Fold Hydroxyethylthiazole kinase.
Amino acid sequence: MPDDFTPPDTALTRLRESVPLVHCITNYVAMDLAANVLLAAGGSPAMVHAEEEVADFAPIAGALTINTGTLSPPWLRAMEAAADAANGAGVPWVLDPVANFATPYRRDASQRLLQRKPAILRGNASEILALAGQSGAGKGADSGDTVEAAEDAARALARQTGAVVAVTGPVDFVTDDTRAARVAGGSDRMPKVTAMGCSQAGLMGGFAAVVPPLDAAVAALVLFAEAGTQGERASQGPGSFRVAFLDALAGITPEELSNAAHLTWL
Amino acid sequence: MPDDFTPPDTALTRLRESVPLVHCITNYVAMDLAANVLLAAGGSPAMVHAEEEVADFAPIAGALTINTGTLSPPWLRAMEAAADAANGAGVPWVLDPVANFATPYRRDASQRLLQRKPAILRGNASEILALAGQSGAGKGADSGDTVEAAEDAARALARQTGAVVAVTGPVDFVTDDTRAARVAGGSDRMPKVTAMGCSQAGLMGGFAAVVPPLDAAVAALVLFAEAGTQGERASQGPGSFRVAFLDALAGITPEELSNAAHLTWL
Amino acid sequence: MPDDFTPPDTALTRLRESVPLVHCITNYVAMDLAANVLLAAGGSPAMVHAEEEVADFAPIAGALTINTGTLSPPWLRAMEAAADAANGAGVPWVLDPVANFATPYRRDASQRLLQRKPAILRGNASEILALAGQSGAGKGADSGDTVEAAEDAARALARQTGAVVAVTGPVDFVTDDTRAARVAGGSDRMPKVTAMGCSQAGLMGGFAAVVPPLDAAVAALVLFAEAGTQGERASQGPGSFRVAFLDALAGITPEELSNAAHLTWL
């Protein structure tokens, strides 16, 4: 474990003690699950997207998360305004550039947001490769590339942008360029439930309100891995998995997190 | 019990017999749960928000509900047009001014809607205080004030606007200024599930289509209290609570409601 | 069984083998469930609605589905652009004209989309009657007419537009004018869960990516009937039904589908 790293169990304790307000600008598909994930884990989500108020709202939040899933021009303008307001107020923010490889509109929007310097950048392998200017094998909203194939791109993005970069997949990879780790665990049922990744980005925002960005990204990845592992045991398919996953997020204790062996430093 | 009051069990019977169409203009986060709550309890929800059609739709509904959760200018224009059309047709409507204390945009929008005289006004304590022009301790979408602290504001709003005012919390308070009641019950898991309050406003719309406004607000509060109590017993966390809550809404009989001791008149 | 018909069990095998990308433009209420239904059954949904990108996205999908539930002008423009792009690229698309009988705006929008010649048209009886220019007894989003009452209208629409037409209800009816079938099964709990019909249209898109339109519509109806039947047995109300239904969609084998007696050719 690196010096000065806040372990996930301590991060979880801080999240539940402070119940931070998290300003979420996310896609229509993910709003319900993303809010419930944050509530279950211990945060206080608020979905606010109007250009008329995002600059007033982001500064009062503990963190901001921006997800480009169901993008459109008024939402993109609000995302840019919210990121600017967060930066001005010292509020950390998380970028989740959904399917940025799929269309030129989506690629350009992701680059515009990336230039605003998120504290954490989360994506699947195809998304991270596309952000780094490389072509991958993504299809629709799904990655067509392995996490390993995107590790160099993740390190390069971390170096260039100053963001912590998390590449999610069966085994996640996370780096701030100088430090790097892998997080294993979770469930094969996770990709069968929509908006799990988007919700993970929201949870990274919750943790980013209480611990530094790398520690926050790791805490969210580890908590998802443990809740996914517990959720799989308590479920029979993707429907009951989602239910059991939320129950697990709320029920997992810091002790369980510290005993779980999901995290490996590289 | 006041004279001429329709008790919740009778209101529930009427709801299920008439299956009223409820025109809902609600936020993106709540749409799924709000529709499922109304369907489970016995109503027929329809989510319709375009300016091009709300004035055609509201008059054919039994009630209209307006929730400002994920507000934006085109939606606000549609909310105003729908409220006007409902008023013109004698259709009762419910206002749920989400987080009106959080930004100037949201505060102004809530006041514009309140001037259109809803039959029922529902909010948490911080929202009701803010509507009455008082400052509270709300944060994001969550109340930072106790229900008790907002009772005077609720009575004043009821007197000034003619609306039935419901302040929701661990113990709810509801008044039309001349009459007042408290509703206890429910579950600590309710605030851990997103959009429960928004869905309650939708359910008040369902009841407002079949009984007078005070009776409708009380019926929705009592049904939520009972379904929350039953749902807690059948759940292990917030994920399974939401599932069990919907099952309970559909399964609760009028007899169970009349036997439950959630309601106290003041 | 007609010549050259792909039975539902074979269609399901193909769906799971190819995991087709399905471009969904659907309503806010249905997005979560529609995505989860497609994921559980075996497809790869992507919700993309901006005019700025739908024409780039539809051609890379295996199918497109358009649902008019929460309609507004920018969405309608995107629906038309997406349908045109799908047609230009030979991508089959599904139209679900929600509540087209309820307002003039909704009726006109549905006709504009119908003129773009969907491969499959899905609606409840009141919607199909309205599309055929007949007046029914629909209320809000719910059908007020029996499936039988809409069968002639369905045949006429199939003849006039070239679409496969599916009328859904307690027993579904599906026709391409020369062939026709009924699909029985499912659960009385299905109408108590919001967005089940919208999600069925999405699933028809998934199957339309791998088998011809009539075969795709039948496969989706039969898979819904079987998952509904299994879901009812594993549930206690509408909340647990939705969960069990998703589990069933993921767990049903092609063998179970071929043994189930839901389909009757006329």
Remarks:
- Residues 213-233 of chain B form the longest helix (21 residues).
- Chain B has one domain: 8-265.
- Chain B has a mean pLDDT of 96.
